[in-house]
Amino acid sequence: MEGYRERGELVLSYQITQEAAQFLNKFQRAQKKYQQCNDLHLASSKTYRKELVVARMYVLHFIQVLNMTIQRGELRKEIKSAYGLGPDKFSNPDLSSEQGLLEWGERIIKAEEERTSKGGVPIYNPTIAKVKVHWQAFNEHYFNQKILRENVAKSLDEVTAMRPQADDIILDIWNQVESFYSDLTIEERMSKCKPFGLIYYYRSSEKAKKMAEGVQHSIDF
Hints:
The chain is mainly alpha-helical. It is about 70% helix and about 0% strand.
């Protein structure tokens, strides 16, 4: 649009063309940054979801085996307190949230390692070592995923914060172009404004009126 002339005059002021060009460059960089952050997050999410599901399965399975071992009388129910579990309760804790899985996984691993280090018979199928491998993979990826989510949100906020300025520039351009061609008929104005991105639409009533005028002209002698 910069330098666009009509009848030897600039349709848009030099100031607005410079402002629009500078803003567009900045806005495109912000959009590219957001897209890159979002792509990284989505790519990482595929692996993370798998690790989350597997870690939850192993922690939950370990708790279930621990409960069955106690119900069979192979271990005393009092040991459950160290795991954060009620001695007389055999329902599973809530592992539906990521935070719940983080807390319960850490608690279960720590309690089992402390118990077996003192000579206690370890739980098998799964062993706590196997549980720990999958829980740690989830745990490490959780914090990385959290950072990626924060980056996406931050970059999106940056793009969103620029939209009011974009609206102001667009309005200024619109007003300048319309003002320049204000002495033309509506059809001529629509044609001249279109290259600047100004697209006019008839309202339903206006469209009907226009069609009626066209029919009237076609039957005039």
